[in-house]
Amino acid sequence: MKLARNIIIALIAGVIVGLALNLFAPSVFDPVDTYFFGPLGTIFLNLMKMLVVPVVFVSIVLGTVGIGDPKKLGRIGSKTIVYFLLTTAVAIVIALILALILKPGTAGNFDTASINYEAQEAPPVMDTLLGIIPTNPVTAMAEGNMLQIIFFAALIGFGLAMLGKKVERVKEVIEQANDLIMYLITFVMKFAPYGAFGLIASAVGSQGFDAIRAMGMYMGVVLGALLIHSVVVYGGTVALIGKRSPIWFFKNFFPAQVVAFSTASSAATLPVSLKMAQERLKVPESISSFTQSLGATINMDGTAIMQGAAVVFIAQAFGIELSLGQLLIVVLTAVLASIGTAAVPGAGLIMLAMVLTSVGLPVEGIALVLGVDRLLDMVRTAVNITGDAACAVVVSQTEGVLGDPEMEGVPAESKTV
Ligand code: ASP
């Protein structure tokens, strides 16, 4: 909690400094950003990213050994996927409804005639899913291909569980590696307040505030939908299925949300979100490692919300009416797009091109939302990883293995599920 408080203080300080430079000394901002804010943020981001592949590999291996039984693994996997898909679909529907009611695209004069935007090619979602089996696990790790690493690690864990005593030493080594990595996460997190300061000062300082003013309504729709979704869907499922107080859930997961907010990357936040879920939310490592690593890669409700709101906004700005059928297509493609979105800053915007194309809207429309996307990215990333943690709590409870919230500081028993 002390760390979360320090990060918040750093964020506030970063906003003030970034804003002050942006408004009163714009010419000073660039050099300060290049030599101070930027490097601070990059050092922190790199330290976190450095731990992602080892933490995912080690914790998924141990997670699979802990679950052992492939049937159980299948059941946990199915529950996780169902939760991910349903909540993402609900997220888009909330965004669509809010955008249709509040009509952000009619709340200003958007010059749609003169925009010029080259959309990047969105990677085909099917390729991502079919490419789950790595032909070379070392390449998968070198490239940080999360789904392939998860697959390989799960297979190793399965082998370890099957061979049992014979490979006990290998398992022990991986268990110790896990302790080591968890220690490193705590260590690296000490730098988080400085990193958060640099990241937010850089983001705020480089922001064009005129763009924000013009886009107030669109931002309101996205932020409103993110809030409603978090409270109703995550709070609701944690309370009803997870049998835990939503306030307890949000309070204990808060440090991870703050890191997600500052980094705008689900992947870079993964080490902290795993740690928070295991130590504070008492999710056993076996479930947390799966749901959250997979979720960081394919479950992005916040991103889906942005995409839903942006589609309606762009249609309205261009004066195009969307039919009910088209809205349904948006729900489907935005679910797919959020699965295919990489867990890095700004990736959701690239996939927006795919959603726009699916209903024949001009991809140039992305230029309209581009200016304010960085700030929204920070908030939606925090929501993205909260969905993964909520899922971990819900699945653990339905499996009867969610730890006792009273056991402060003691991780839930992780080896037997
Ligand atoms: N930055 C988001 C994430 O990492 C993805 C996006 O929506 O751009 O979760």
From TrEMBL:
GO terms for cellular component: plasma membrane. It is found in: Cell membrane. It comes from the Bacteria. It holds the Pfam family SDF. InterPro entries: Na-dicarboxylate_symporter, Na:dicarbo_symporter_sf. GO terms for molecular function: symporter activity. The keyword Transport applies. Keywords: Cell membrane, Membrane, Symport, Transmembrane, Transmembrane helix, Transport. It is a multi-pass membrane protein. GO terms for biological process: dicarboxylic acid transport. The keyword Cell division does not apply. The chain crosses the membrane at residues 7-27, 47-68, 80-102, 146-164, 180-205, 217-241, 327-344, 350-372. This is Sodium:dicarboxylate symporter. It comes from Bhargavaea cecembensis.
